[in-house]
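chain below, 131 aa
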Amino acid sequence: MSKVTKNLAITILHTLAGVVLAIILLFLTLALALSLPRTQSFVARKAVGWLSSTTNTHIAIENIAIERLTRLSAEGIYVEDLEGDTLLWVAKASATIDRKPLLTEGALVPKDVRAEDVLLDTKTDREGLLL
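prediction:
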């Protein structure tokens, strides 16, 4: 192998190592940022704002925690119905986030969803049908 080819191979390997290291550092920085309470509060506010505007109803979350970019837990989830009454109250909920859609499509796909102390207040008409 000539000296030029050897130098080119070493340069390519160093570049690839630098790219891999940069990707690892990016994920570590993102994980660290999402472990901070201030960042988690920001994410919760943005998510609640988006959900409220999408569903056209009031939604609130007291506390949210994101762990290792794969586990999401929330406390004090409140959803109002269109008349301003409590539709849903969840004291504590958690879900695992599927990594493949998160990394490939940027989509949050929950699995293994769990909820504790849930209140679902529905209204029915005289025949017992949900309104």
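Residues 3-35 form the longest helix (33 residues). The CA atoms of residues 37 and 65 lie 8 Å apart.
thats it, cya
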